[in-house]
Amino acid sequence: MPLPIDPSLAASDDFQLVIKTLAGAFNVYHNLIDVWFLVFARVIAFISSAPIWGRKDIPFNIKVSIAIAFTILMMITIKPGPLVMDNNVTVYLLLLAINAVVGYTLGFIADTILMTINASGSVMNNQMGLSAAMTFDPSTRQQVTIIEKLFGFIALMAFYHMGGAYLLIDALHRSFDIFPLYVINQDLASKLDWEYLINITGNTLTLAVQLVAPVMMITLLVDLTLGIVNRTAQQIQVFQLSFALKPSIGAAT
Hints:
Blueprint: H1 7-49, H2 60-78, H3 89-127, E1 134-137, E2 142-145, H4 146-161, H5 164-178, H6 188-191, H7 194-202, H8 204-211, H9 213-232, H10 238-252
Antiparallel strand pairs: 1-2
Helix pairs in contact: 1-2, 1-3, 2-5, 3-4, 3-5, 3-8, 9-10
């Protein structure tokens, strides 16, 4: 004859099972939240420095909304492994900082393309004698030259219509393969060509000058021609004439 089971003991076993289940679920969700914030740190830093989304005229709450949407997308696709850090807050904060640096660097590299074109517009504007013509750029909250503003707008539209936004999202997704979320034990120096990054940043002005080299050569010839005219026919107001010639010839070039 089976022994009777104490109902209080059965209830106690059920309660312990529920507690263990809830504890396991809490650990899973706690780990998921930790990983989510690591991904969000990289994404929000990328959004703040990348072209299209990094403009200062876009409200911060819109950027955060975009970052949350991208974070959810990345969480679905990258499938990161479990986060093991033994509840070390210092290590977790370091991981947040490293992921933010990786995201910001990635966006900054992409933005150097538009920075080069903007710099070429500024150089061209000065060569055409329009350095005094300034306008307010809400995307940078600075005073910029009119040619620089025009070049920046054209470059941004061309970048967007050529699928630049999709390329940026793909680059962000690939960054999790090259620089994993838990990069604290990774050899970053072997994965990142620092010399290349320094060169593309330092060569921004050089590339800008190369882009507007034809305009610079034409305006130089105009200056030489006006100098010769000033020597041979001093009654001609060469200085005033240059204000009409240089912008017209520069725009035609």
